[in-house]
Every structure is written in structure tokens, then in C-alpha cells.
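Human: Respectfully, please carefully check these C-alpha cells:
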Amino acid sequence: MKIVVVEDDPVIAGLLKQNLEKWGYEINCLDNFNDVSGEVLRMDPHLVLLDIMLPGFNGFYWCEQIRKYSKIPIIFLSSAGDNMNIVMAMNMGGDDFISKPFDINVLLAKISALLRRTYSYHGQTNILENDGVVLNLGDATLALGGQKIDLTRNEVRILQMLMENKGTIVSRDSMMERLWQSEEFIDDNTLTVNVTRLRKKIEEIGLFNFVKTKKGIGYYVD
């Protein structure tokens, strides 16, 4: 998947290129902002990361120009994260907005979700995000803001099931079946113990009541 980065700050552009290429994306960074829409259309990427503050015309203008010819997904990047800028970004044709400074894992999650929605891309995603909580399946970590903790295999699986089914109760039976794929008898209390340990661990990064219980049925996150 090809991504074009339209960012005036060369340090930020370089960091984006370095981090996104680690995840297999092909990154092109514009360094000439005289004809952003023309360059984007010529490169024909799958997604654009577009800063608002650019030399000459701003990102709003260039998004509007791109939209005259293409429905390519566009994520706005900006240090001005007030509601007015977010509304303006969406009105000009943007698909998402992320404020600087941003967590690269959150940006990765937004990129992955937008690419899946746009291109019906069903490849394996290694990042799940829910209101700033980022589960990285690749390195088995959970992050919130600048804090990160390591997870066990079962803890990752529990959070993956719940975050993939956000807002929906995941039954205890289905969780036990996925966690312990065996015909051997597993004590029902084993799941409770695992969830209790997970809750205590994620409290270390300020996540209280993240995993909720529906008594007698299962667990969920919202």
C-alpha cells in the first residue's frame, strides 16, 4: 500500500516515513508544495497524510482540489486540534483527523482501519485501537499515551476478542473456546482468574474499568 505524506516539517515527515515503512507501507514525502493535488494524483497512492499548515495554500485548499478528481482517503494531521479545524477538515473532504503530537500506534490503527474500509482489505492487522488505547498484536503490548505494558499470550487474546467486538458482549464460552482450543476440561474459574489479572495489570497505565462484566454472560469494552 502506497502512502503520500504532505508535511512541511521535514523532521516529522522523516519520522513518519521511518515508522510507516517498518509496517510495510511504501512512503513518498512531498517536498514541493506548489502543486500538491497534481503531485498526489500523479503518484496515485492508496492514502494521503495531509498537514493543514503548509507553505502557500493550506491543507484544506489542497484537500478540496484533490476531491475534484479523486476519492482517495485523506487523514489530516495538525497541531491545531480544536473542533473548528476538525469540522473544516471533514467538510473539505477529509476522512479522519489526528492532532499533533500523536502516538504513532494510534496513527497506524487509523491508517489500517481506513484502508480496510476503503479497499475491503482483509489482511492481518497488527494494531487495534479504542479511544486512544492501542493493542499491538505484533509485540504483545498495550499502550495508552506514553505508557506501555507487556502482555501474556492469553491477555492479548482476551483484549483482541473484546476490542474486535467493541460494544458487544463476548460470551464466556466463546472466550474459553478461543483461549484454550482443547477438548480437555477447563475450569470455568480459569477465565475469571485471567481477566482479573489482566484488569490489575492494565490499571498500571490508568485503565480502570476498561474490561466490563455482564454477570453470568461474558465481558465487553465500550
Remarks:
- Helices lie at 10-21, 36-43, 59-67, 83-91, 104-119, 153-164, 172-179, 188-202.
- The chain has eight helices and twelve strands.
- Residues 51 and 77 are 5 Å apart (CA to CA).
- The longest strand covers residues 2-6.
